[in-house]
Amino acid sequence: MQFNARYPSLNPKLFHHQAPKPLIGAKAGHFNAELANQLNWSDEDKVQWVEICSGQKIFEEFEPLAMVYAGHQFGQWAGQLGDGRGLLIAQILDKNQKTIDLHLKGAGLTPYSRMGDGRAVLRSVIREYLAGHALNALGVPSSNAVGFTTSTQGVQREKLELGAMMLRTSDSHIRLGHFEWINQYQPDLLKEFTQKCIEWHYSECLDTEQPILAFATKVIQNTAIMISHWQLIGFAHGVMNTDNLNITGSTLDFGPYGFLERFRPNWINNHSDHQGRYTYQQQPSIGHWNLWMWLNNLVPLCPENIEKEIWKEQLAQCLEHFEPTFLEHYQQGLKQKMGLPSFHKDSFDCAMAFLRILQTEQLDYTQNFIRLQNKEYELIKDDCLDHRQFESFLAQYENIRKHQDTDELDQIMRASNPHYILRNHMAQKAIELAERNDFSEVERLFKLLSHPFQKQPELEKPEDLAPLPSDQPEIMVSCSS
Ligand code: AMP
Ligand code: MG
């Protein structure tokens, strides 16, 4: 590994050095060899992956640390948070010379653990491991993980579960909440911290007239693009608190996430989200709200030659990029999923008509885009109660495509519609087996989700392609992790 230990160069008030505390009976869960290669892991590191991913081996080049941050949780100021169970154990260069954080989740107590035990359970580790892998393969900017380990140590949640650790990778673990903490508790650090964020993550902004405004605009645009990806793929993050959003716009800390199955935009996947703040359909507006809260923290960085009120206005103008960026990416992506030409004036309307059918008929989002792609129109229609609504959509759809190069549109469709997402019941099956020390289903899903846009008949099971029948009880995803 080639180290680039840059976070420890920040003011020490921003973190606490802390060694991981290994679990009893740590043992292999799953290893992502391809990612380890991408991160230039040596053969020796690969042989020792269980030790590294269970906190037994730490690196001389990097003293592990827990980061402090703050946040707004479910819309309320939550004060100081900080990583209560995750340690930054290295920053390394990948094959493209990009700096990547190695972050060990479930590594024991830190000064920021509050009431928690510093641990993660196997159930939530498998969910995050497979979802991070799936999102990356789907082309959604996201954290990922090199591997996870399990143990024989019991960890108490609603019931006693197995403790586990996961070695997460991300281009950053700097959250919007980092700025909130600094602004609230150590405002003297704000200027230098912001400067470092720009140098590390947005160096192209350094040469602009107002680097801070350019930086803010980029963070806003990247977040909008990330959320457009989520909407297109049918992903609901579940806990979009400001401490769970990264400044790079890569998906982070998705605990009780869900991949949408039947198209219910107001579906609540996180059962502690009583008011439905973080439903699928709310994600764009919550992203906007989080960024608005975040921008307040840049107000003190007003340059001397600019009046405060004007500076505030300029910051507010940065946020005006959110909606057009989101809409541009979302609309373009939706047209691609539909195989409709981007320039045609009726393409977006037609796509919305399809979504309305999915919603009123409670059809599966992923499965029915694939049926559309395969021109299995009868299968969609058979699942509809209102055949006329579908026929009228289909007439419009075929009419728009009539005079187009459909070969090219179909090719774009195939690259935009996954056959496989991580349905809750798929993850659940893998977890139940893994809790009995059988990781074969984790391995199968890992392989299947590596190539979500390719049909893999030799690997897939019928239940990977559809939601559970509607008369079966939905799997309740516990938000404890
Ligand atoms: P989350 O909602 O999982 O992002 O967690 C919110 C905050 O609580 C973060 O600062 C976490 O590090 C912390 N936290 C969550 N679970 C635990 C735990 N079991 N032990 C200690 N801290 C935790
Ligand atoms: Mg978090």
TrEMBL record:
Cofactor: Mg(2+); Mn(2+)
Entry keyword annotation includes Nucleotide-binding: yes
Pfam families documented for this protein: SelO
Any one GO molecular function term: magnesium ion binding
UniProt-listed Enzyme Commission number(s): 2.7.7.-, 2.7.7.108
List of residues binding ATP: 82, 84-85, 105, 117-118, 168, 175, 253
Keyword Membrane appears in the UniProt entry: no
Catalytic residues (UniProt): 243
Binding site for Mg(2+): 244, 253
Catalytic activity: L-tyrosyl-[protein] + ATP = O-(5'-adenylyl)-L-tyrosyl-[protein] + diphosphate; L-seryl-[protein] + ATP = 3-O-(5'-adenylyl)-L-seryl-[protein] + diphosphate; L-tyrosyl-[protein] + UTP = O-(5'-uridylyl)-L-tyrosyl-[protein] + diphosphate; L-histidyl-[protein] + UTP = N(tele)-(5'-uridylyl)-L-histidyl-[protein] + diphosphate
Class of this enzyme: transferase
Keywords from the UniProt entry: ATP-binding, Magnesium, Manganese, Metal-binding, Nucleotide-binding, Nucleotidyltransferase, Transferase
Annotated stretches, region: Disordered: 455-481
Free-text function comment from the UniProt entry: Nucleotidyltransferase involved in the post-translational modification of proteins. It can catalyze the addition of adenosine monophosphate (AMP) or uridine monophosphate (UMP) to a protein, resulting in modifications known as AMPylation and UMPylation.
Family: Belongs to the SELO family.
NCBIfam families named among the record's database cross-references: PRK00029.1
Name this polypeptide is given: Protein nucleotidyltransferase YdiU
Source organism of this protein record: Acinetobacter equi
Gene name for this UniProt entry: ydiU
